[in-house]
Amino acid sequence: MIPSYFQLDDGLDYQRWRAEKMAGAPQCVADLVVEVGDIAALTEAEHAALLARLGRCNMAVYAERQRRQRDDKQALKALATRLGLASLDANALADDDGITPLSVHREGTRSRYIPYTERPITWHTDGYYNPPERTVRALLLHCAGRAAEGGANRLMDHEMLYIQLRDESPDMIRALMEPDAMTIPGNDEEGLARPATVGPVFSINADGTLHMRYTARARNVIWSEAAAPAADAIRRLLDGPSPHIFKHVLEPGQGLVSNNPLHTREPFKDDPALPRLLYRARYHERIS
């Protein structure tokens, strides 16, 4: 069931939800950060602090107090389990355990894809090319090694973008919720083939929360005629100054837990002797 505040003909409940959302919005990156001892064994207070930030803005950044000698991938999975996540989205370029190591590859299949290069990644939500039955609702990142230079992420709560668009024109939200709003053409590359995916940008999860499926890529995306003006508005809002866009470089022992908000990655320079390495885990559930 769609909550009343997400129904475009209900202005009063929307204004109440909007006021509450704006009042709880973080003001700076520091508002997102939770210090923890060990992500594989959160205390009750640490767990509650992460959930509180997720409830306010769909994301939190954890910072472990010291580096640990351990299997970071297993620690990340333990964190996901504590957050109620179980259905790992194992994409074709992930390792056999479903976790994707994001590092620079100079050759091979991974080297042909931007996440495995030093190049920037524009605004997107993860899994925008997935079919509906594999919707990515939660995204976890853990930093094991930072870049020699650059590589910051920009982050924005997708509910804040929804508010900005709806305040400007509810018709844009209506167009972006149409089932044919955004099409990602298929890929026929051997081993990585997938069909075209057609679907909305904004949709409502079964629990009544808002989901966003989006990429700012100019190529390999087709917008419906009705949604094209809204797509232009999204790009304008994301490229302009905003108090709701936060920039942060993950340091070793830090990570992001999120309900797959909008995010980018800036270009970076890699040091092969001390390479950048992030572990990424995508889940079909949302952190609630």
Automatic annotation (TrEMBL):
Write the record's keywords in alphabetical order, separated by commas: Oxidoreductase
For this chain, one GO molecular function annotation is: 2-oxoglutarate-dependent dioxygenase activity
Cite the TauD/TfdA-like domain residue spans from the record. Answer: 70-281
InterPro entries linked: TauD-like_sf (IPR042098), TauD/TfdA-like (IPR003819)
Pfam families documented for this protein: TauD (PF02668)
Report what the protein is called: TauD/TfdA-like domain-containing protein
User: Mind giving the lineage of the organism this protein is from?
Assistant: Bacteria, Pseudomonadati, Pseudomonadota, Alphaproteobacteria, Rhodospirillales
